[in-house]
Amino acid sequence: MENQELEEQGFKPAPADYFSRKAFVKTFVAADPATNCNVSDVYFEAGCRNNWHTHASNQILIVKEGVCYYQEQGQPVQHVPAGGVINVLPGVKHWHGASPDAPMIHIAININTEKGMVTWLEPATDQEYSH
Q: What's the pLDDT tens digit per position in 27-71?
């Protein structure tokens, strides 16, 4: 999808400091004191991945399109196809992104947001991504 098409669908550019290429976010439910949950679609262009990061509470990823590359620190990269679900436990250092040859969209559900949303860390390297 082109940037303009994504923006017409309500996506906004993700913070470039935390992504290796272009990514876009469309928030459906914004966390507030009553909800304590954030639900968003995240679009990663082919080859895009985010930095290593952690969450204070669970993050649930539901892959909608493409293949999600997902890695927890010290573990091999997983290739999760559309329909797959990843339950990232609190405090687990990880990254995720699209395969090299196709974009990927996942739903990101962040629960218990009163504990904090995300702690961004260093970029995932090309070597980490390709393994």
A: 999 999 899 999 999 999 999 999 999 999 999 999 999 999 999
Sheet arrangement for strand 85-88: 12-13, 23-29, 37-44, 104-111, 59-65, 85-88
Domain count along the chain = 1
Domain that holds residue 86: 3-130
- We report the CATH number of the domain holding residue 37 as 2.60.120.10
pTM for the whole thing? 0.93
